[in-house]
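Reopening this one. Same input as before:
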Amino acid sequence: MKLIPTIALTVTLLASSQVFADSKRTAEFLLSDPKPHQDQQVTLDVAFVKPVHWKSPLPEIAFFHAITMDRTDRKPGGSILVAVPAEESAKFAKKYGMDFDGRSDMTTLRGTFMVSGGKKEHGRPGIWLVDSTGKLASLLEQRKLDLPDEKIEGGGAGPDGPGGPGVRPRPRRPL
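Same output, byte for byte:
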């Protein structure tokens, strides 16, 4: 009877397609090939967030690094810069948490995946980020926003993905 192997193969394919679908919700996935996702709505599985180490150039917008996690394998999925309305920054930090300790869940984050302009005259490419404010596209188009070239430890918001420009590799510990 050939029906049982066919059913088993179908179930296996459906299960594996769901596994691959979840891993696409990490910063590493987006940053590994960013162009197809540019200016698209994305959903990320966020483990926690960290505030940036610089003052926002716009008082109405706050910036955080969202540290993502691959839900399927429970492994780190890299980090990416996120823009949120400044008046919601405390609520945002509370919702996603500021560290991984004690967190067993992940919360999803939706926004538009885009690249800041960068400065070609300085040889600096743009920075990939997720905009949850809906305001950054017009600000970038009007050249009213210039983001600092911040180095990010342990995953990247650099334009070429993890390990690309703007990303400092994590130091390795000796065995």
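So the earlier flakiness isn't reproducible anymore. For the record, Helices lie at 3-23, 27-32, 89-96, 136-141.
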